[in-house]
Specification:
The protein is an all-alpha fold and 93 residues long. The protein contains 5 helices and no strands. The chain has helices at residues 3-10, 20-29, 55-70, 73-82, 88-91. The termini are far apart.
């Protein structure tokens, strides 16, 4: 029997596989659920899409990202919208 089915049948837990951002929204909207992440399956990148052949813009964006990772501003922005800091796996790349 799979974990999901066992948890549902035993009424001990309601497992969910979703993004960390949604987990934080669930916790805010219904704190009585005592909903918390138990493991991270995958951390994925967020990206900025650019038109091809814009090296100056790409350079400026990379510079802004690097500067604001170092000074903590990018992490503050990320945390504001995701409810947690930028994953270390992303920062280590």
């Amino acid at each position: 029997m799979g974990l999901f089915r066992f948890c549902r049948l035993s009424l001990q837990a309601y497992p969910v596989a979703t993004s960390a951002t949604l987990v934080n929204q669930i916790k805010k909207q219904n704190p009585k659920l005592n909903f918390e992440p138990k493991m991270t399956l995958t951390v994925f990148d967020l990206a900025i899409g650019l038109q091809k052949n814009q090296p100056e813009l790409k350079g400026k964006l990379n510079e802004w990202i690097e500067t604001n990772i170092k000074n903590g501003k990018l992490n503050a922005i990320y945390e504001k919208y995701h409810g947690e800091p930028i994953p270390q796996e992303i920062l280590n790349r």
